[in-house]
Design brief:
The structure is a single chain. The chain is built from 6 helices and 2 strands. The chain is mostly helical and 147 residues long. It has 2 domains: 72 residues, no CATH class; 32 residues, no CATH class. The radius of gyration is 21 Å and the shape is globular. The N and C termini lie far apart (55 Å).
Length: 147
């Protein structure tokens, strides 16, 4: 299995393109995933100043980062990703493809497991057993620590 990230900044989201450009600037320095994780953890704070602060926090060379961000150096790659998404019918985010089969939107784990297992079966690859069930959570005793 391999995971491939594609940018698809939605035009109605005012911070989507700047965030995608910033992520591509982080990619140039080999820290795409660290920066990606920082953005996802701070989705409500994506101003230009926030993007610069996150770059510092993940250890990027700020001069290089700002130059790439301000020149929109990553835009051709982003535009190519957007065109590819459009050609595949992926008009929203997130969008997932498993061997060319499309899953749209945030989906529960079981949706992915079913699709992956169906693909494994189709390819005559053994489907691994499901993980063991977690024990049920114990209910609080209701004593609340009072003596």
């Amino acid at each position: 299995m391999r995971i491939v990230w594609k940018n698809n900044p939605l035009p109605f989201h005012p911070f989507a393109m700047p965030s995608a450009l910033a992520s591509m600037a982080a990619y140039e320095q080999g820290k795409f995933w660290e920066y990606h994780d920082k953005l996802f953890a701070n989705q409500q704070k994506l101003t230009h100043d926030d993007l610069l602060r996150y770059a510092k926090e993940v250890g990027l060379d700020i001069g290089r980062f700002e130059a790439a961000l301000n020149s929109a150096r990553g835009k051709p790659a982003i535009d190519a990703d957007v065109a590819e998404a459009k050609s595949l019918g992926a008009s929203g985010t997130p969008a997932f493809f498993v061997n060319g089969r499309f899953l749209s939107g945030a989906r529960p784990f079981d949706d992915f497991a079913q699709l992956i297992n169906a693909e494994l079966t189709r390819l005559k690859i053994p489907v691994p057993p499901p993980p063991p069930a977690l024990p049920p959570a114990t209910a609080p005793s209701g004593k609340g620590g009072q003596s």
